[in-house]
Specification:
Elements (H helix, E strand, L loop, with lengths): L2 H20 L1 E9 L10 E5 L5 E5 L5 E8 L1 E9 L2 E2 L4 E5 L3 E3 L2 E2 L1 E2 L5 E5 L17 E3 L1 H5 L5 H12 L9 E4 L13 E6 L15 E6 L7 E10 L15 E15 L2 E23 L6 E27 L2 E17 L11 E18 L3 E18 L5 E4 L3 E4 L5 E19 L2 E17 L7 E4 L2 E4 L17 E4 L1 H13 L4 H6 L6 E7 L2 E20 L2 E12 L7 E10 L9 E11 L4 H9 L5 E7 L10 H6 L3 E7 L7 E13 L3 E20 L26 E24 L2 E14 L19 E2 L6 E10 L5 E9 L3 E2 L18 E2 L9 E3 L2 E4 L14 E2 L3 E17 L23 E6 L1 E12 L44 E9 L1
Parallel strand pairs: 1-8, 1-9, 13-15, 23-27, 36-39
Antiparallel strand pairs: 1-4, 2-3, 2-5, 5-6, 5-7, 6-10, 11-50, 12-14, 14-15, 16-17, 16-52, 17-18, 18-19, 19-20, 20-21, 21-22, 22-25, 23-24, 25-26, 26-31, 27-30, 28-29, 30-35, 31-32, 32-33, 33-34, 34-37, 35-36, 37-38, 38-39, 39-40, 40-41, 40-42, 42-43, 43-49, 44-48, 45-47, 46-47, 49-51, 51-52
């Protein structure tokens, strides 16, 4: 007998020694649904002889275990919201280690009524049961908005501010990208779960995982209709009249069995939303050329969308299940892009068709191994066409007119994703390892700015008297003053009418600051591949101590970087030994990489000077004529080149966290977490061919000595950025009684960086002074709370309140101070109050033409106002029709300190409800009608400096490109019939 043959049985005997000699066993297994997807948070009950009763909850990987189970006959039951065993399972425990896997089935929503025991949330040392995580199922999910845009906003609010510079991330059925499904298609939502797992490529904080429904074992269906009208709503404060708004959303779904081994789910919806675009700008009267301050106008933007989403689940064998899901979204938006500073002429027609195919094959191998193979194909096709083909006119900080300059653009993206993950339950260890492979191809036709764009900025100019003549100063020279961009545009049109030459107009402060035009081949194609491999182990070293270790490796094409090693570690310890813990201390560390996007690689390929040419003319004298590309190539214009740095690396974030979770009296849980994020190699850009310091004179166009003579600006995309963030997060959850459950969080956040992404250029191309400052994510304080309050007659109130202090914004001069063709220069802090052109602001006396050596403002020095949002959903469910038959097993509720609305409550009994349900609810957005300003204008030569010209949320939500921002307070009637 070899040494290995001798040691192996002895090791097994030592491992099982307590069970062998005490005649007790360990009962374990994995809980899955009909699609073989694992179910975390399912409640299991083991009933045995002499009244023995044990309960437990399945872990994040669906595994469960009962220890110290005496030999004998037992009944094992399990359930989760909308999922149950067909009938309790009878088992005979007669071996030291016994495995029983359970498969739950979808129950009819119309027949399920959950009775909760209000045990309150509990803390746990399970790696995935961190108290900051949310799991939304059943009634918790139904409490969220039915509207797709509002649902996306609610999920982002519930996830809270994510760590790192790139915001949160959404995954659908384990896949990245894709489209947000309708709420009726969603089975479960997990938020901020297991933040340091090696399985995840993105930070766990701010991560939203959405899992869709499989088919049910009984025929069920839902029909809904949502209605919103501006008649019920309040006027937007940035519009002089109430903007039009009309929302009509309707559709439904049906689910049921095909045969004993297959089931289906089909969801169909149509959304028709007419959103009022609000223009709030500074313009000129075309007759008198007087400045209109402000100019406001409302414009109706029709938006239409159809969503079709079928799913098929098929049990190939008792241990193999196949799930196939398809979703198609057809969207059409007329007059998109209008609003804020964009006039009606900037409208464009947007059309898109997105299609997603997902297939998952799950195999249960033996008694303790689950293997999942997933494949996704996501195709996104879109087109844009400008309503006005004319040249664009950009008057910085005042208005954007002319054509949208998108031409007839087309873009087709194909995204392929293949995953293979294996989970192994081995005693105290839960191993998981796998690989994810992704490829993206893109074909893009973009005649962007082929029609040309004029840019007007402010600057030093002669002061004019009432007759539009220069005011003479000492010595007969004109008095120089700082004028706004709209004043420069006004002088241009005025002096053109008077017949002055372009040179005379420029001398009087008129004329555009820049003209840009693109030419060449509009079409281009590219592809990118990335891979991620990982292995991790959740090791329950003791009943009160869990250690999680993992390692991930990532790589991608299009950059020369192969150093994507990402270690992960987590620890959960409950002081005081075994039993139900009251306190859990958690710690974690992880390295998280971000990908260099294919879109950025396309920019470098397109604007390489060969495929397309970007011509830039400083202080052009041919306004309003549009020269041809050939004329520009022969003129003193410069051509802009984009390049990726040869040393470009994938940016990454090293994050660590330390937290304490405590179960308090009164069914309350609190978690306090400190998080530190340190980001290296963050992306930013630089002009490496800007005029050398001291050689450029803003008053002399074309001046300056270039490092590479004969070439224009060279914009280099590089990974030289730095990011540092510290956060303190407090989560509280309380289940007061069966009618009231509340949750809330507070976040203190401090974030510093020298970049906010690839669009960030240093204000001075030859100095980083002042670049390291407040990051755009430095929202210092944020608080949110919500819950469920069930009143008399079963009327349910679901409030969601969010408030935060204002974000920082950058203060710029609005002019090209350094001759680099950019308008990113920041003003100087004036030391000589008599210098011409100074501007008095609440930030002090600022110099838009900083002298050499003059200290300039740091990046993101401004601070915008905060925001307050209070949303409320009021609903009532009416049940009628014959009652169902049979019983439904008990199920577990949500868990975690932020467990929305009914978090932490567990189901103890289930009764059978009526066959038909009619739900009527009213969703109220911004109930307090509070004005929440949007982005703040940071250009000090803009008449809107320091102000917002639109409400917050006037941009697309959740990547849907649909807007519902016409009114400040918005009401939506939502009706739903279920059988």
């Amino acid at each position: 007998m070899t040494r290995f043959q001798l040691i192996l049985p002895l090791s097994v005997m030592m491992l099982l020694r307590p069970c062998v000699f005490s005649q007790t066993a360990m009962l374990r297994g994995v809980v899955t649904d009909e699609s073989a997807a694992v179910i975390p948070g399912a409640k299991l009950t083991l009933a045995g002889p002499s009244g023995l009763l044990k309960t437990t909850t399945s872990a994040n990987d669906g595994s469960y275990s009962f220890t110290n189970v005496p030999f004998g006959a037992y009944t094992l039951d399990a359930g989760a919201p909308q999922l149950a065993l067909p009938q309790p399972k009878k088992i005979d425990v007669k071996s030291a280690l016994q495995t029983v896997n359970l498969q739950l089935r979808v129950t009819s929503t119309a027949q399920q009524v959950t009775v909760r025991d209000n045990a309150g949330p509990a803390v746990s040392t399970d790696a995935a049961n961190n108290a900051g995580a949310l799991i939304l199922r059943g009634n918790d999910l139904q409490a969220l908005s039915d509207d797709t845009e509002d649902l996306s906003a609610d999920l982002q609010a519930l996830a809270g501010p994510s760590a790192g510079p790139n915001g949160g991330s959404i995954f659908i059925d384990g896949f990245s990208g894709g489209q947000l499904p309708s709420k009726d298609s969603i089975r479960e939502i997990r938020i901020n779960q297991n933040p340091f797992s090696a399985e995840y490529d993105k930070l766990g904080f701010g991560r939203i995982e959405i899992f869709t429904k499989p088919g049910s074992n009984k025929l069920t269906g839902t029909a809904f209709y949502n209605l919103g009208d501006s008649f019920w709503n309040s006027r937007d404060p940035y519009a002089q009249q109430k903007a039009p708004f009309l929302l009509k959303e309707y559709g439904g779904n049906i689910s049921g069995p095909i045969n004993s081994r297959a089931s289906f789910f089909l969801d169909v919806q149509r959304h028709a939303i007419d959103n009022g675009a609000i223009i709030n700008a500074i313009t000129l009267d075309p007759q008198t050329l007087g400045i209109i301050d402000p100019f406001t106008q409302v414009f109706r933007t029709p938006q239409r969308r159809i969503i079709v989403s079928p799913r098929l689940d098929y049990q190939i064998t008792p241990n193999n299940t196949l799930s196939v899901r398809y979703q198609a979204t057809l969207a059409d938006i007329q007059d998109s892009g209008i609003g804020a500073l964009n006039l009606v002429s900037r409208g464009e027609h947007a059309h898109s068709l997105s299609q997603t195919i997902q297939a998952t094959e799950t195999a249960v191998i033996g008694t303790n191994v689950i293997n999942e193979t997933r494949f996704q194909f996501f195709r996104a096709g879109s087109s844009l066409s400008s309503n006005d083909p004319g040249a664009a006119i950009q008057v910085l900080g005042a208005f954007n007119g002319g054509g949208a300059q998108t031409g007839n653009s087309f873009d087709n993206q194909n995204n392929y994703e293949l995953q293979n993950y294996t989970t192994i339950a081995a005693g105290k260890h839960a191993w998981k390892f796998g690989v994810r492979l992704r490829e993206q191809t893109e074909t893009n036709i973009s005649p962007q700015d082929f029609g040309g764009m004029y840019t007007f900025s402010g600057g030093l100019a002669p002061e004019l008297d009432a007759n539009n003549q220069p005011v003479p100063g000492p010595g007969g020279q004109p008095v120089m003053v700082q004028i706004t961009s709209i004043e420069s545009y006004r002088r241009t049109l005025l002096f053109e009418r008077m017949g002055l030459t372009p040179a005379q107009i420029q001398a009087l402060g008129g004329g555009p600051a820049q003209f840009a035009l693109n030419a060449g081949m509009p079409g281009i194609s590219a592809n990118q591949f990335d891979a991620g491999l990982f292995a991790g182990d959740n090791w329950r070293m003791r009943p009160n101590l869990t250690l999680s270790l993992g390692l991930r490796y990532e790589l991608q094409t299009n950059i020369h970087d192969w150093r994507g090693i990402a270690p992960r570690a987590g620890l959960a310890w409950a002081p005081g030994g075994g039993g139900a813990p009251k306190t859990v201390i958690r710690a974690g560390f992880g390295t998280f990489y971000d990908r260099f996007r294919l879109a950025d690689a396309l920019t470098a390929l397109r604007y390489n000077g060969v495929v397309q040419q970007q011509y830039v003319v400083t202080a052009p004298t041919f306004y309003p004529a549009i020269p041809s590309p050939a004329e520009l190539a022969a003129s003193p214009s410069t051509q802009t080149i984009w390049e990726t740095s040869s040393t470009l690396r994938a940016p990454y974030l090293m994050q660590s966290a330390l937290g304490v979770e405590r179960q308090l009296p009164g069914k309350t849980t609190i978690a306090v977490t400190y998080s530190n994020s340190h980001g290296l190699h963050q992306l930013r850009s630089a002009n490496i061919n800007a005029p050398l310091p001291g050689t450029y004179d803003p008053l002399v166009p074309g001046s300056g000595v270039l490092p590479f003579p004969g070439h224009g600006p060279v914009f280099l995309m590089e990974s030289s950025g730095l990011y540092n963030q510290n956060q303190v997060i407090v989560n509280v959850n309380s289940n007061v009684n069966s009618h009231i459950s509340l949750f809330g969080y507070y976040v203190y956040n401090r974030a510093l960086s020298n970049t906010d992404g690839l669009s960030t250029f240093a204000a001075n191309p030859y100095s980083d002074a002042g670049e390291y400052g407040l990051a755009s994510t430095d929202i210092r304080n944020r608080v949110s709370f919500g819950g469920t309050l069930t009143a008399k007659w079963g009327i349910r109130f679901n409030p969601l309140f969010t408030a935060n202090t204002g974000p920082p914004f950058d203060i710029t001069t609005g002019s090209d101070v350094y001759g680099d063709t950019l308008f990113t220069a920041r003003p100087g802090i004036a030391t000589d109050p008599n210098k011409p052109g100074l501007i008095a602001t609440k930030y002090g006396l600022l110099d838009p033409n900083p002298s050499a050596g003059e200290q300039t403002l740091p990046r993101n020095f401004g601070r915008g106002p905060g925001s307050i949002t209070f949303n409320l959903r009021i609903g009532k469910v009416f049940t009628f029709g014959p009652k169902g038959e049979g019983s439904i097993a008990a199920g577990g509720g949500s868990r975690g300190s932020g467990g929305v609305f009914t978090s932490g409550q567990t189901s103890s009994t289930v009764s059978v409800g009526h066959r038909y349900n009619l739900s009527i609810s009213m969703a109220i957005r911004n109930l307090l009608n509070h004005t929440n300003p949007g982005p703040i204008t940071g250009n000090i030569t803009s008449p809107l400096f320091g102000l917002a010209n639109q409400s917050a949320g006037a941009t697309s939500l959740g990547g849907t490109n649909f807007l519902e921002s016409a009114n400040n307070r918005r009401l939506e009637l939502q009706t739903r019939f279920t059988f």
